[in-house]
Amino acid sequence: MNETGRVIIHDLHSHTSASDGVLSPDALVQRAVDMRVNVLAITDHDTVAGIAPARQAIADANLPLQLVSGVEISTLWENIEIHVVGLNIEETHPQITHLLRAQSERRQQRAVLIAERLDKAKIPGALEGAMRHAQGGEITRGHFARFLVEEKRANSIADVFKKYLAKGKTGYVAPQWCTIQQAIDVIHQAGGQAVLAHPARYGLSAKWLKRLLAYFSECGGDAMEVAQCQQAPNERTLLASYARQFNLLASQGSDFHQPCAWIELGRKLWLPAGVEPVWLRWANCP
Ligand code: AMP
Ligand code: MN
Ligand code: MN
Ligand code: MN
Fold this sequence. Notes:
286 residues; alpha/beta; DNA polymerase, domain 1; eight-stranded mixed β-sheet; 38% helix; globular
């Protein structure tokens, strides 16, 4: 709630067609308004290309939505892929532009290697197929997944990952992402806050998750995601207790990629008592 007693809905993690989201920036901001979201962060994988068109769409239609310019940076820590969200970044800052350009090249190189591996496994045309789904956006495994479902290699995106794209499977290529420290530093240089994305989704034991959180905090990380719309029972409470333990602010976001039955913009997003919301530190906190 804000000082007038109105409930403000923050959704601080979402994707557009600039990476592996299905909706265009225009359609995403319109949907956020329809879902009664007040503050939306667009956090595409290693790109900020969706921000300017979203801002323009909000201005053109005079939408009642505060846009937070964000990004989700892929990093490697202990050989595990960890995602770091940047919130309120100056998205044209030279340092962030430089890092995202390098990440984009890594994505393109990895895409070629993924397609080569699939080709060897008698699945031709994967690069062209994935690029068709990416429509000029930043290429991700999500686009390969859509191609493989289209080719009837699996029944669902989740199945494709299990069968082809997860670590150790036929189409998996070890990525070359930047480090957590590099991602945090660049987000700070661009004036933003660094948030550890979806901590419970890395498949880490409690011991390793705590090790990650301690490291993220030591590196100067500001916050961690505590609330998502789909979480195991007690996960939110546990993550909130970790946020306190490791001195991190708390964030929340749907990680919306496309309209579907179980994940929606703004849905079930609230923070347990005892954590400090990441947005309370913003100069323009609504
Ligand atoms: P990338 O950053 O190119 O490795 O692609 C990662 C993206 O693939 C994630 O952001 C998700 O959108 C999607 N993804 C990863 N693992 C899964 C999974 N098991 N099921 C469905 N989507 C997944
Ligand atoms: Mn994604
Ligand atoms: Mn992620
Ligand atoms: Mn995401």
